[in-house]
Amino acid sequence: GIGIREVLLTSGCPGTEAKCIVRVEECRGPVDCGWGTPISEGLACVKMPCIYIRPENRFKYVWKMLILNKTAHILPNDSAIMEVCRDTHSVTFQCETQENGNIIASVKYAVYAKTEMQTKKSRRTETGQSRRTTTDAILVFCLATGIIVTVSVIFAMIFMILHW
Questions:
Q1: Residue 1 scores a pLDDT above 70
Q2: What is the C-alpha to C-alpha distance for residues 93 and 73, in angstroms, rounded to an integer?
Q3: Given this model, what pLDDT does residue 54 score?
Q4: Parallel, antiparallel, or unpaired: how do β-strands 60-66 and 81-85 relate?
Q5: pLDDT tens digit string along 15-37?
Q6: I need a labelling partner for 120 at 20 to 30 A (CA). Which of 15, 64, 155, 156 fits?
């Protein structure tokens, strides 16, 4: 769903808290909002965080590569942050944050293929150029209108002074 979500831990919170907020973030995924935003994203690689609170070494992290209509492939990476380089196909990753064998949080990431990223980048550039052209036209219109109004006011004042 579109909106804001709070990422909560249901176990492992500081003190005697039953639940604690890890962070608040924009939600762009499906209704259950299980999609995360990478820490950094370039044309070549993506750096993705698992859900955790400090100290991060108190949790176990299980990264999976999700394959449509197949069993998820568990990856050997057990750190809170994983960096992957783009391939020729889009891939979905999921990270489960575990404490004492229980899953306490989960987040998914869609990593697009290199060709898809280049296509998106060129679309953004084209959209940015057309948006810039529109903005420039509006600025020129406002400037011209301002000059015309200023000159008109000056002539009106001169006319009033001469006929006074």
A1: no
A2: 9
A3: 73
A4: unpaired
A5: 777 777 666 665 554 434 567 77
A6: 64
